[in-house]
Amino acid sequence: xxxxxxxxxxxxxFSEEELHYMLATAKKFKQIKKAGxxxxxxPGKNIVIVFEKTSTRTRCSFEVAGYDLGxxxxxxxxxxxxxGHKESIADTAKVLSRIYDGIEYRGFDQKIVETxxxxxxxxxxNGLTNECHPTQALGDFMTIEEYFGNLEGLTLAFVGDTRNNxxxxxxxxxAKMGVNFIACGPNHLRxxxxxxxxxxxxxxxxxxxxxxxxxxxxxxxxADVVYTDVWLSMGEDKExxxxxxxxxxxxxVNTELMNRAKPGAIFLHCLPSFHDLNTSIAxxxxxxxxxxxMEVTDEVFQSKQSLVFDxxxxxxxxxxxxxxxxxxxxxxx
Length: 333
Ligand code: CP
Ligand code: NVA
Prior knowledge:
single chain, alpha/beta, Rossmann fold, four-stranded parallel sheet, 12 helices, binds phosphoric acid mono(formamide)ester
């Protein structure tokens, strides 16, 4: 396996073996961090993390992981660079890769992160695009493996807006890891057929299935993991809230829905989540549409089955792994 100087743009770019190796490495990094052992492998290296959309987990994970590995980190916020408006993506990539040893990008089209990667001599890491959220899927599968002890044969049901970035990356990761994947949501928000076809091809090699349905009965006594995400993603038109609520209300993850899953099933969410009224957006939605909870009820979110904060922590260990593996050059013997 050779990860050196590779980009991390989407899950399907990596083999089953490579993804398993990443999860195993993340487990080691978690132990090292908990034991307080020094792991400053890259003194003198510097990375830049470019965010065209806001972030808590991903930004903090890249920053802390970078510092833990001994590197300097520059954060460019959604208004802080010339990229896109005054300087092309290609030129920005050429500039940043002269100055830095690695580039993280969070933003809009997947094409942007691909253009950055094509024009950069250093690794480019995808911190979320409209289409994919690969570091999220890696952290989530670390969490699932920690809890169940293994992955193969499990069933993950993503319920809600099944076309979104998180769902796409989870579908790809499930196919690679031999996990059955159920995308359950309204037909109006169907996953891109080409994405599904590619994942089904991978899944069939790994003895697992990909199911796309609007029928919640698909979860019955099958799902080991129930996963949801916000009903409107960053960058989408806010005018769509009303339409989304109508379409997705039947797919809210509540106790009744959790009871469909296998006994002992866990609940996951990439976060942030609208499970109460303690955010300005949730208050706004409450004023306009009268909802007090959205994609998940507070009861499920706060339950013992909910591992959402383990997921959040594991983002850091897995992001550290991606940076470590793509930056570490084995000495020639
Ligand atoms: N899950 C996730 O990517 O969270 P942030 O938007 O806070 O980075
Ligand atoms: N689908 C969400 C994920 C946030 C981590 C979004 O893109 O806003």
